[in-house]
Fold:
Amino acid sequence: MRQNVQNGLSCHSRGEEKVKLQVQRCYPRTWQPPS
Structure:
């Protein structure tokens, strides 16, 4: 599994059950995404 880091952003790809779609969200590397 590859983690894309661009412009200081950490992108996390996950499947959203509610919308049945693969969603990719990017956060600042200093910010921890909700688990």
